[in-house]
């Protein structure tokens, strides 16, 4: 990794409380502006003569009443919209009105009292809640009562019937304008705060993606800069920790590669001597010792291949190498290696190959990996067998099936469930014939090899006794 960039920074920038207070001030100013604009619109309508101001009705009640008493009232078109009205005939019956409820009752009482009043008399009373009542007799008989409320009203009766009260309209406009203003301020605040938090989100995303060699950004908000500084310190600490870990792992890989390479020299000597011994024993017609020498030579050859794989793996270049091959070739190698393991362990081997194997076409297989997986199963069975191990190869259902069984005590329930897990060794029902230590890697390695080919390893106990392990790989 390149040299790490550092971006530690102090507590610079404005306080977050200032940013929040600023937008509270914006919100207050926006709401105040919305209310002021609505009030100004109402004032303009009043000044333009479209609306009566709130005090016009009570202030002009006597003057309007005297004019109506003098000119007469033929209908609501004669009464200004600042008033509600009631007209009685000379007998005290209602001729027309737009009042209702308590207001109608109070107006009726005053109008009936005005029937007996002298012409030109106007009686004005306050009704509470901003109401003003005016009652007066009419020329030619009858009486009229006017009720005004302390509210602005439309001058035009057509507008009064079409639109809400001007004051209600002003309040609705102010409320709507306030809501719109608050929404705009909130949107602006959200965008600004998101922009100020962007360096924090970017730094978290890059650290989460494993990118540690970068400079953490900054903002003009003090608290966000504090978090960024802490994140930068965390990034640097994590990078140093990973660098140390990678260095240690690199050293371990190099050491393993060196040791594996050094093994190649004694293995070469061992293999050459094993071949020499086998040739000499064949000349002396000692078949058993010759076979043992050949097993040593074959095992050394496989071990040399494992050392090569170990070196490649330490360099990070090892892996499965599939190549087209006939299943019969793989089965031949599996049974040959199983024979060597059985001889070394002193157990009898029953080897068999199904008839379908010979005719199976080529398939992409990693010969070394699958052979090693089968050898692990055979070695595991030979260690736990009493006297016999059976290995069979067959092709069934489009799968290459390698089955390994023994006449030992079988798998425990825990082993049947978890036997292929890495480092699982808690199988109390099975102990090796030589009391050797187990590391819980053989079945796991076989399972991994099968999984790499899209197959699996299954464990079972034979009804007649003993364990059965099966590799099934799709062709």
Quick structural summary:
It catalyses: ATP + protein L-histidine = ADP + protein N-phospho-L-histidine. By secondary structure, the protein is of the alpha+beta class.
Give an account of the 3D structure:
By secondary structure, the protein is α+β, with helices and mostly antiparallel strands. It has 13 helices and 14 strands. The chain has helices spanning 16-47, 56-59, 61-71, 101-114, 157-162, 166-208, 222-283, 287-314, 327-345, 355-358, 367-384, 413-418, 442-452; strands at residues 51-52, 83-88, 94-97, 123-128, 131-137, 143-149, 153-154, 323-325, 348-353, 363-365, 388-396, 399-406, 456-461, 467-474. A five-stranded antiparallel β-sheet has the order 3-2-6-5-4, with helices on both faces. Strands 9-11-12-14-13 form a five-stranded mixed β-sheet. Helix 8 crosses helix 9 and helix 11 (367-384) packs antiparallel against helix 13. It is a multi-pass membrane protein. One of its GO terms (molecular function) is kinase activity. This is histidine kinase.
């Amino acid at each position: 990794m390149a040299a790490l960039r550092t971006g530690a920074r102090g507590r610079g920038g404005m306080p977050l409380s200032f940013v929040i207070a600023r937008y509270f001030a914006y919100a207050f100013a926006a709401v105040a502006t919305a209310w002021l604009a609505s009030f100004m619109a109402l004032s303009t309508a009043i000044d333009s003569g479209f609306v009566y101001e709130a005090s016009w009705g009570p202030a002009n009640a006597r003057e309007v009443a005297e004019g109506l008493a003098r000119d007469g009232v033929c209908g609501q078109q004669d009464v200004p919209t600042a008033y509600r009205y009631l007209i009685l005939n000379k007998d005290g019956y209602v001729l027309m009105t737009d009042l209702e409820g308590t207001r109608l009752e109070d107006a009726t009482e005053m109008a009936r009292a005005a029937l007996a009043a002298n012409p030109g008399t106007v009686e004005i009373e306050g009704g509470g809640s901003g109401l003003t009542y005016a009652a007066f007799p009419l020329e030619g008989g009858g009486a009229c009562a006017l009720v005004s409320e302390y509210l602005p009203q439309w001058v035009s009766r057509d507008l009064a019937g079409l639109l809400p009260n001007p004051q209600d309209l002003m309040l609705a406009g102010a409320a709507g304008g306030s809501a719109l203003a608050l929404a705009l301020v909130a949107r602006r605040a959200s965008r600004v705060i998101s922009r100020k938090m962007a360096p924090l989100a970017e730094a978290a995303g890059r650290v989460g993606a494993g990118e540690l060699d970068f400079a953490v950004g900054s903002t003009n908000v003090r608290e966000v800069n504090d978090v960024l500084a802490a994140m930068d310190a965390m990034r640097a600490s994590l990078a140093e920790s990973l660098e140390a870990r990678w260095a240690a792992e690199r050293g371990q890989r190099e050491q393993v590669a060196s040791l594996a390479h050094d093994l190649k020299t004694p293995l070469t000597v061992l293999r050459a001597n094993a071949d020499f011994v086998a040739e000499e024993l064949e000349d002396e017609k000692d078949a058993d010792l010759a076979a043992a020498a050949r097993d040593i030579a074959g095992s050394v050859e496989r071990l040399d291949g494992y050392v090569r794989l170990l070196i490649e793996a330490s360099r990070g270049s090892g892996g499965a190498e599939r190549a087209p091959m006939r299943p019969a070739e793989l089965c031949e190698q599996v049974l040959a290696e199983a024979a060597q393991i059985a001889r070394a362990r002193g157990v009898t081997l029953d080897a068999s190959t199904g008839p379908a194997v010979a005719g199976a076409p080529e398939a992409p297989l990693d010969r070394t990996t699958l052979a090693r997986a089968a050898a692990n199963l055979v070695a595991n069975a030979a260690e736990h067998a009493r006297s016999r191990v059976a290995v069979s190869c067959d092709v069934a259902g489009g799968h290459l099936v390698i089955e390994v069984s023994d006449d030992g005590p079988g798998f425990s329930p825990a082993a049947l469930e978890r036997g292929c897990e890495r480092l699982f060794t808690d199988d109390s029902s099975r102990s090796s014939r030589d009391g050797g230590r187990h590391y819980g890697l053989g079945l796991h390695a076989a399972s991994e090899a099968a999984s790499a080919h899209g197959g699996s390893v299954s464990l079972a106990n034979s009804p007649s006794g003993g364990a059965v392990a099966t590799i099934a790989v799709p062709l």
